[in-house]
Amino acid sequence: MKNSDPSGPPDRRENHLGEAGRGFWSRRSTATLYLIDGYTLPYSTYGIGQGIRGIAIHGIADSHPFREQDFTMDAIQAILTRRSIRRFEERGLPPDAIDRLLEAAMAAPSARNAQPWHFIVIDERSILLEIAGRFPNAEPARYAPVGILVCGDSTLELSKGYWIIDCAAAAQNMLLAAHAMGLGGLWTGVYPREQRVEGLRELLGIPEHVMPHSLLLFGYPAETPPEVRRYHPDRIHRNRW
Ligand SMILES: Cc1cc2nc3c(=O)[nH]c(=O)nc-3n(C[C@H](O)[C@H](O)[C@H](O)COP(=O)(O)O)c2cc1C
Hints:
It is a single chain. The chain is α+β, with helices and mostly antiparallel strands. It has two domains: 14-81, no CATH class; 84-228, NADH Oxidase, CATH 3.40.109.10. 26% of the residues lie in helices and 16% in strands. It has six helices and eight strands; from the N terminus they run βαββααβαβαβαββ. The strands form three sheets. It has a four-stranded antiparallel β-sheet, sandwiched between helices. A two-stranded antiparallel sheet has the order 1-8. A two-stranded antiparallel ribbon has the order 2-3. α2 (75-81) packs across α5. The longest helix has 18 residues, at 163-180. Bound molecules: flavin mononucleotide.
């Protein structure tokens, strides 16, 4: 895979967690409640030090095919343990997983609450293969059972230019929701690369007023990238630069 754009090899500044770190952040949790330090609600066996125990991402609706423990992960844990997945198992997603991902996407914040997005769910293998063939940065589409193309609709925009950020928030929500559901996800960049934007527009019949923004790939992970820490105190400034 080409190391263009933000994609590429793991960042050398990252700390790959050792055994101790991994023990502290278990990948799976059975937390089902919103837990704030000081409250005595039941909680799972991990925590963030002695402080806030986090906010659970858990069942969006009651009828879902996941067992509660499969579907529930502390939000902070999900954020800190999510990695890009580029190899997927052959099996498809559980029946309503895509709806849950889309529900997570559309729950994202957006400038003036414009929600200027559309989503194209791609589960036809021939189209995913075509994408993998045409766009080297999206090569993992060859193996992913599902792709979701996040698009921005200029006619829905309320504050000019913010659609890019709004769509990014929706994309990130989906990646986190997928991870919390035990699935793997990959963000492959589209906008602002002209060739990718126009290539996908042509391939998928997207109208002129709609901009392909990012193509997310989902499936059961067939790899387990190590957890990393990216906390850099030298990037933090207090009150002034
Ligand atoms: C805007 C954006 C575009 C990206 N484009 C690609 C891409 O085209 N292909 C790819 O394999 N990964 C892509 N990635 C994933 C990044 O390479 C990945 O997030 C980064 O290396 C950090 O690794 P992690 O996601 O495992 O934490 C993209 C990520 C972002 C946020």
